[in-house]
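Consortium newsletter contribution from the modelling node. Members have asked for a concrete example of what our holo predictions look like. Here is one, prepared for the 2-acetamido-2-deoxy-beta-D-glucopyranose complex that several groups have been discussing at recent meetings.
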Amino acid sequence: MQATIIAALLGILAIQTQAQLIASNINTNGTSYYTAPDCTIENNSFGWNTLRNPNGSLFTASKRPIVLVYDNWVSSRVNTYVTQYLLQAMGYKVRVVARSPYILGPELYQHIVDLEMELWPSDFTNYGQITQVDRVGFDLGPVGYNGIVGWWFPSYLLDQYPEYSLEFWKFLLNPTIRSIFPPSGSGPFVNLNGAPICDNMPGTCLNNTYIPEHCRKKNANCIELLQYVPEYYTNIYQRLIDGLKLPVTINFVGDTLQTIVRDAYNKQKPVLFYGWTPTVFLSQFNVTKVMFPISNASEYAAFGTNFPEAQAFITSYSLDDSQIGAILKSVSDGSLTETQAACAWVQGNRPLWEPWIPTLPQSIGNDPIQCIR
Ligand SMILES: *[C@@H]1O[C@H](CO)[C@@H](O)[C@H](O)[C@H]1NC(C)=O
Ligand SMILES: *[C@@H]1O[C@H](CO)[C@@H](O)[C@H](O)[C@H]1NC(C)=O
Ligand SMILES: *[C@@H]1O[C@H](CO)[C@@H](O)[C@H](O)[C@H]1NC(C)=O
Ligand SMILES: *[C@@H]1O[C@H](CO)[C@@H](O)[C@H](O)[C@H]1NC(C)=O
Ligand SMILES: *[C@@H]1O[C@H](CO)[C@@H](O)[C@H](O)[C@H]1NC(C)=O
Ligand SMILES: *[C@@H]1O[C@H](CO)[C@@H](O)[C@H](O)[C@H]1NC(C)=O
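And here is the predicted structure:
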């Protein structure tokens, strides 16, 4: 059975002001929380903790605290502490709370926690109800999950348009800014064995394209996203386009996508395309992912909405068996406390976690469309 990371809704946005985190299965140790003592991380040059908003305040530190919950066993706790330390290295405020009694649900339905770093779905009969039906928690995959799916563009566009905040999805709502990308209908129409790549799938693909209602209007000025085939991430982005009213159409081009992207890249031209890492294909290019809520913004867990820039960290986070084993061993032989063990692991294994820290957004300093909230 695999453990998973779960991100949950968090509706309380004013926790900084000491509002209580109350749910029947959450123990906060009064108002002290279980947040581990500080852990010094040398050479913290990732830049997240010094990143500033346009008004001069610190970007991550000025956000509400991220709330992590652990369960009453060592791997859950040290896993949570490691996450705490890395988020703190990025400048976030973090609060750790404990689950007790061992039931799943109240903390999610009452929007109390953001992340549960180790969760055993088989322990909870309501797991499916929570993640699939009520959708108050999102399964972010196995703790070892390391794939990142999204919309990408070549990073040289950040240099070509430094004032445009291209890393944040809201640039799509600004007609001037999005017009740097090819308009709908400009990509090739690709036939495969004499037939379109996809067709006759209402809401998904008609004659190789997905065109949302709002892009059928006159002067909609929609732009084109290149996608392989509808079977990759089926309907996720169609519904995202609908939900956020993104002025974007999808052109399904099969593997030709890679040729088009390579060609644009060689010419330093704008292109917006679907992709995922780690792949041999994307490893050849310097590309940037558009950050946005992964699904219908009004339904998606507040973690995704409030901390879009931190999602890449959570999905990259991966402690394998030998790593968690080493941490647990240093606790079991009594040489270190749990928080010391987590801190020592963070201090001693920088090459392992460094890739989890997302690349610093470059356009925050001059955010013309106020997309960072
Ligand atoms: C609980 O809070 C008290 C202070 O109220 C603190 O001394 C104690 O260390 C906390 N317990 C844990 C496990 O963090
Ligand atoms: C921090 O940087 C100093 C100077 O470059 C270097 O000597 C030291 O090894 C670094 N420490 C870590 C933990 O990377
Ligand atoms: C500065 O900007 C940030 C982000 O927009 C905001 O959260 C914060 O309240 C602002 N601070 C002041 C003093 O206006
Ligand atoms: C990727 O492109 C950005 C923007 O041009 C640049 O700042 C960064 O150094 C590049 N990264 C690599 C690994 O080339
Ligand atoms: C499908 O789209 C292509 C390219 O726009 C067009 O040439 C073709 O007539 C369309 N086919 C149908 C059945 O609409
Ligand atoms: C997004 O979620 C809200 C709230 O549940 C709902 O009203 C809206 O219809 C949803 N939009 C789409 C496109 O599903």
